[in-house]
Design goal:
By secondary structure, this protein is an alpha+beta fold. About 50% of the residues lie in helices and about 25% in strands. The protein has a domain of about 130 residues: Nuclear Transport Factor 2, Chain: A. The protein has seven helices and five strands, in the order H-H-H-H-H-E-H-H-E-E-E-E.
Length: about 220
């Protein structure tokens, strides 16, 4: 007859076996590696934030606008060619424009420069480069320099720094001039001053050369 001790040991063995059987029947989930999250760049995030139909519509609109601007520019260019301003030789004849610009630059340098030791040089320049209304205008302008020239021993030097031919219409032209003027007194205790000047001149072609016919200082 089995003893109490044997019965206890037997129950323990049966409990262990039953526990192992239950464990064997329970499925163990397999460990599947989780994919690493992909980094989203700022550009990708921005692309995902815009719905695809909206993005396509925006690109289509840009293409339409670009095509529309190209058509407008082409039409506008054709209109400008038909305008009277397009027949301005300053826009089409580079050689003639360069000739006007060069001659006017030389003229301004010469007629607006003065040396008290040789005042006749300015007069000769005026005879060479001026005509019409510009003769009296220049005489009035240079008179103030002459009045002080001998006493203060003045030397006035004018240098054209930039110029632009606005219009050439046949034998007439208009030129915008920028110049530096340096006025030096060589008398004892004299000084020098420098200033910038801007004015326009109307030029005409006479005897195969360009002459200044009007001086516009914009003082109105």
């Amino acid at each position: 007859m089995p003893t109490t001790r044997h019965m206890v040991n037997r129950q323990r063995r049966l409990a262990t076996v039953e526990s192992r059987r239950a464990t064997a029947r329970t499925p163990v989930p397999s460990r599947v590696p989780r994919p690493k999250p992909r980094k989203r760049t700022a550009r990708a995030a921005a692309r995902r934030s815009v719905p695809r139909p909206v993005l396509l519509a925006s690109l289509s609109l840009l293409a339409v606008l670009a095509a529309g601007f190209a058509g407008y520019a082409h039409t506008r260019a054709e209109d400008l060619r038909d305008m009277p301003a397009a027949r301005n030789a300053a826009l089409t004849d580079t050689a003639r424009t360069s000739e006007v610009k060069g001659t006017v630059g030389q003229a301004v340098d010469a007629v607006f420069s003065y040396d008290h030791t040789d005042p006749r040089r300015t007069d000769k320049a005026a005879d060479t480069y001026l005509t019409g209304k510009a003769v009296g205008q220049h005489r009035e302008m240079i008179a103030r320099v002459r009045a002080q020239g001998e006493r203060q021993k003045l030397v006035l030097t004018t240098t054209v720094t930039q110029s632009g031919v606005e219009v050439i219409d046949g034998d007439r032209a208009r030129v915008l001039v920028f110049a530096d003027q340096r006025n030096t007194s060589t008398a004892k205790g004299g000084s020098a001053t420098q200033a910038a000047a801007m004015f326009a001149v109307d030029a005409v072609r006479r005897g195969g050369s360009w002459r200044i016919a009007n001086i516009d200082t914009f003082n109105r």
